[in-house]
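Contributing new records

If you add data, match the layout below exactly. Sequence lines come first and carry their own label; structure lines follow with theirs. Keep one chain per record. Anything else will be rejected by the validation script.
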Amino acid sequence: MPWPAVAGAAAALAVLVCAPFFAVTTFIGDDHLFLAFARYAPNPLVAFVRDQHGGEFYRPLPMCLWWLLGRLAPRTPAAFAALSLGLHALAAALLARLILLIRADRRVAVTAALLFFVAPLPREAAYWFAASTDLLATVFVLAALGEVVRGRTWRAALLAAGACWSKETAVVLPLLAAVVLAMRARQARPRDIARRALPLLAVAGAYGLARTLVLHGLGGSGDLAAAPAAKLVQVTAGLLHVMTGTQTLGAVPALLIGLLGWLLLLGATAREAWRARPVLATGAVLILALIALAVAPLFGAPWIVGARYFYFPAALVAWLGAERLRPFRLPATVGVLGALAGLALGQDLARRPEIASYEARLDAARRGVASGLGEGFDTFHLDAGIKDLDLAIKEDPRVRGGEDRLLVLGDVPASFVVVPPARPQAVDFLRARPPLPPSGAYRFGDQRIVGLARQGDDPTLAEVSAHFPRIRYIRLRAAPGGRVIARDVTETMDQGDEADDGD
């Protein structure tokens, strides 16, 4: 193929993969909680020594990064999109580097990096800015493994600290390093492997101690956890979807295609292992061991649902897929990459209208609340379908003047709100029990952020009206041209037309 055609194809692929990072995502969900930390915490370094995540997690490094970007580029999704794209590309490059250090096979390394870079599920995780914890941990883990292979133990230990202080799942890094060293030197003695992995174990232990001291315990979510069997199903489903995603094909077709793909991978691995004795000499078997280690910490989560959980395992699955594609001619590899890119494109096309609708609803909600504040009201209820609506509204400079008393309630249970400093008891009857987060509140600077009632425990609109006689009820309505307008329907609510509806 002529070089101009190759360059043109590479440029088209780059646009196809990179442009969606800026077109099909925005601040959503837990992003608003991180932005609240950036807005209210006076010093980001406090996250290293004081619980800033409500007793759930200890991930200070991403929080510092959010604080910095949140201060430098407030309300600027493009800056966070650039960060996500950069981290995703860096993870792909580090994956290729690790494979080159172990296998010295450029084709496998480049194929694995491209599979990971274009596949829909890793990109879905990267599109959610709050998943920066997973992206950062993956980058640090892959970089640390590369340094372990090169024999730079203390540099690997420093990178391991970055991984652990980004997300707790990185504590398996010493075991990952042992497997990688076994792959690099098939005849390596256990003593040599232990000597190189020991500093990483010390780092993981130091992180565990720091986490316990800062969280005053083991931490973890206060939500009900799935049963072990259900978690196994969730992990299995995640691994089956790890390359195909779910949004383009649908969950069931993607599940079947993922199952077929895994059967092909495992079948080829079994044949290779049968020919090469002993079995542990087979690199593909050791890659499967790496994947198993990567998913093992996920069982500590209450629910293992979402692309972000499988971001790092997806990199290892891409490596396994590249190994299995190695014997085939180049057109087969190009065809697989094209299929994955097509699935990702379908995912992106489906996401764009959802993101546009979300942004239009949030903008209308902000306008409605700002207008009501100007009329002297400080309590609002909106049907907007937006989690953590109170936090999202308070990012708007137009409401800053009344933020001391402002309270915004929404129609998504278990959302978080900033407790109005001038009304510290206002949300007591609305709070989740058991509390969200487990400690009862996030404390960013002098602000308390609490979780509202879970679905089924949330009060009716009549109870809300009884507690807040001057509440303004706002409903969002679609308008021509994709616009959304906010209407005050308080009079209708006062007449009782909807006062008995649960919310």
